Each structure stands twice: as structure tokens, then as C-alpha cells.
Target: Osmotically inducible protein C
Amino acid sequence: MQTSVHWLENVAFEAKSESGHQIVMDGSSAYGGENRGPRPMELILMGLGGCASFDIVTILKKSRQDVTGVVCELKAERAETIPAVFTKIHLHFVVTGNDVKEKQVAKAVELSAEKYCSASKMLADGGVEISHDFEIKPA
Model:
């Protein structure tokens, strides 16, 4: 996997992925940013949510659950000192569907956290305390 990051101006950068996608990142106004895109640390959090959600959807579909929606809401805490790394991240999954079984969702969350989600594993192995919970809503 490869990517490149090009400086645009001030504290704005454009990242281009190997798969041909691009995104602009920008710093806060305190550092000269213009809010032209997410902060780099926000992208890490977004990536974690995407990675875990991918797992949840695929695991639930394989277990023949009638899932119609999955939302992953993430809340993170960062260290007070530089480097301001993530110290805690909580993922809350809202799974919508028809007759979705709680046991299946719990298993999907567990498998994602402990086996499949590369982003979660990498962050946890780096010392980030990661927690999860979920709720199920009827479609």
C-alpha cells in the first residue's frame, strides 16, 4: 500500500491513495489552517470507524442477518502533552435491521475488535484503550 502527501499551502495538504482517491487535510486556524478538510488525527479516527464498520457489516451479512444500516459513532480522548496521541477511543455501533439478533451483533463486534480490524489492532497494540458497545434498532 502506498500514498503520497503534497503540501498545498499554509497547513493544507492533499493526500493521494494508491487506489486513485484524494483528500485534502488542513490544520486548525490556530496553526494557519482554513478548515479545508479534516485534520490528520480525525482521518485516523475515521479510518478506524470505517475498518470496524466494514467488519461488522460483512460478518453480519455472512451470519444471514437482515441488516439495513450500520453507524459507528466514535469518541476519542487524546494526551494533554505533545505528541497528543489517542489514549482512549470508544466505538458505539448502531445496527439497524429486521430481526437482527443481539448475540450475532455482539459476536461481530468482538470478532472485529479482536481479530479482523487492522486499524483497531494497531492502535490497541500501540497503547490506546479501545472500547465498544452497540444498540440494535428495528428497520
